[in-house]
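Pasting as-is:
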Amino acid sequence: MRHLIIFILFFSATLSAQNLQSYLNTASFNSEDGAFLETYLAFDANTLILLEEEEENNYLGKIDILLQLTVNDEMIYTDHYILSSPRFESPEENNLFFFDQQRIPLKNGEYNLKATISDVNSDRNPAEHITDINIDYKNEMSISDIQLVSAYNKQVDKDEMSKSGFSLTPFVSNYYPQNINVLSYYFEVYNSQEISESKYLLNTYIETYQTNIPLFDFNKIKRKEGKSFSSNLLSFDISELPTGNYNLVCELKDIKNESITIKKLFFQRSNSFSGLKNNEDIKAVKVAGTFAELINDKETIKLYIDYLYPISTPDENTFAQNQMKYDDIELMQKFFYNFWKNRNANSPELAWNEYHQKVKGVNSEFKNFRIKGYLTDRGRVYLQYGPPNSRNKVDNAAATYPYEIWHYYKLKHQTNKKFVFVNSDFATNEYRLEYSNVYGEVSNAEWRDKIEQDRSPTFGDDFNNNYINPR
């Protein structure tokens, strides 16, 4: 086993004195020696405590890493090691991400991976990353997992971490901010010689996450000859990709254009412009005879459009606010109908009615003295992600403000995700979201301080138990 540390300038900001920021991603592959899992851990050097090395006259941090793989709660693999950071001239403003990569041989099966990460020089609580792993490679045509790549170069001297002659720097996050305009990815195809006539189509594209509609300008199609093994390192220019949630799709088709197998990887994009339709396009939407035409009161349609914000993309929210500013009821009806038709083309009215019932329930349960339920943090999370699998509510703890911990076993492509809401203002009874380990949500490193009441020195035990073992 080898620890591969790769350095890359990223979009880090100075975050000294915060919890160590770490990120985990994985990908599985097959080989002549059997299947294996690669783990990619990324660390923000700005959040690591660096101590001076007297003899070297520089600063170094150390990270304690525990990897555990279980099957039905039975431990089948564990690795515990200390990872040293790069050396720095100063303990501050080290805008750098560095990586650790491991390769673990695995048989076909379903696994649970847990990575426990802690700063050796800090007494703060360890971070935990938990994800489900599925290995299923058979003697038939198949695709490996998709590995996101931030940088790559040809490798003359092959080592155990290189793949197909390339040294690949992993892109550990599924979030692409505005300053990153290239999405690179690597995957492998196995046993394509088994297909009829030993020829196939390789189709890779980006699709919308909500509707699974392929985007016209983000598509690559290649005709390929069948082989026992082939590798693919490709890129998309995403500079013109609007803000939103997407799937990166790799699909294999036969010569009749029928799908053989497919792999998808979720990612988020943030951009500075709107990719939504303009008003001329919205005007072309026909609402005559639809449920939207019956919503003929301006204030009602405005309220209904406002209800949509928890399940809208940022661009849809911007476009919706513009429609309400125009104060044209027909345009608002068209926008509202088009919104639900995009989500359920066969039954847009049914989709709206089901969502409307959820909004009514949220408005009843989560309203407070200031705002309606759907505008609260708990209401927004409930509407966006659905009801949690468990909800732990503590109203009268001695050392903390009232809080709630929501736990989701599986949330789209993520597992073991939590939300922490805190009521620090008894006058309004408003529970604010202070922390979540869900992509794109609030991830304030000082979130535990928001829960502590009067800086009580006894804070910690009850809350930590509730967070680690939600009920």
